[in-house]
Design a protein that fits this description.
- The chain has one helix and six strands.
- The chain is mainly β.
- It has a single domain, classed as OB fold (Dihydrolipoamide Acetyltransferase, E2P) (Beta Barrel).
- The protein has a five-stranded mixed beta barrel with strand order 1-3-4-6-5.
- The mean pLDDT is 93.
């Protein structure tokens, strides 16, 4: 059950092509965002779609797969863990980021 403590599974569509970064060590890093949609009816009975955006980070082999196969609009299933971090922007303002560190990825939809 320890593996269930911090586990995220999402299916969504890529908002843009992945940003691929090759570090000095040769390791690859892929950054991309996916959108998930939830549809429900409001109090008036009208259909409403709520879109949530999720930042995803993939390392090494998973990043290489993202670089080769992912592109804007493609549907993908992601499994990983949720992480939060903070940094100071160029104006010295502290910013907070929540990301999914992907360890598995499954390409969905047609080729």
């Amino acid at each position: 059950m320890n593996t269930l403590r911090n586990k995220v599974q999402l299916i969504g569509n890529l908002g843009n092509n992945p940003e691929i970064i090759t570090l000095e060590s040769g390791k690859k890093l892929a950054k991309f965002s996916i959108a998930t949609n939830e549809t429900y009816k409001n109090a008036k009975g009208e259909k409403v779609t709520d879109t949530q955006w999720h930042n995803v980070v993939a390392w090494e082999k998973t990043a290489e797969i993202a670089e080769k196969y992912l592109e804007k609009g493609k549907e993908v299933a992601i499994e990983g863990k949720l992480t939060s971090r903070s940094y100071d922007d160029k104006d010295g303002v502290k910013r907070y980021v929540t990301e999914i560190i992907a360890n598995e990825m499954l390409l969905l939809g047609s080729k």
